[in-house]
Q: What sequence folds into this?
């Protein structure tokens, strides 16, 4: 049964199939943990090929528990854009000489190029770090690695 949102009285709140002829609304309560994971992080998909029929973008969020670190990993051919919503996550990569650590704060943005090995850490003993992520692919690509290495 269709319910009115005040503007689109003929649209259902939850369509039964993913189509590309409508605007999709994914509520916070509808994000999915059925996505690629790394130790130390919880990733949640919001906008993806599966959820909304996206073909060129994936968007979701990641939560890093206090005193946690992800596995070393990269995101394949995807460019990754990150917006820090809360906490002070650290992003670690190898620049060819040594490990580099970037400490981010709420409101900061971070860009991770395709195939770049890195890891996320949350050294805070009490606060979960939360970030919003957008990737240039329709699904979350995560390739876990045994160690960081320079490109």
A:
């Amino acid at each position: 049964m269709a319910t009115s949102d005040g503007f689109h009285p003929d649209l259902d709140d939850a369509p039964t199939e993913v189509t590309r002829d409508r605007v999709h609304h994914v509520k916070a309560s509808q994000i999915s943990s059925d996505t690629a994971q790394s130790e130390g992080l919880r990733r949640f998909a919001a906008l993806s090929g599966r959820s909304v029929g996206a073909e060129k973008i994936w968007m979701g969020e990641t939560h890093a528990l206090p005193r946690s670190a992800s596995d070393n990993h990269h995101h394949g051919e995807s460019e990754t854009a990150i917006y820090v919503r809360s906490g002070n996550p650290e992003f670690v990569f190898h620049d060819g000489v040594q490990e580099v650590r970037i400490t981010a704060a709420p409101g900061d943005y971070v860009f991770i190029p395709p195939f770049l090995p890195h890891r996320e850490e949350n050294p805070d003993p009490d606060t979960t770090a939360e970030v919003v992520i957008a990737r240039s692919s329709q699904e979350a690509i995560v390739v876990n690695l045994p160690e960081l290495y320079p490109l």
Summary: The domain at 41-144 is CATH 2.60.120.10 (Jelly Rolls). Helices lie at 49-52.
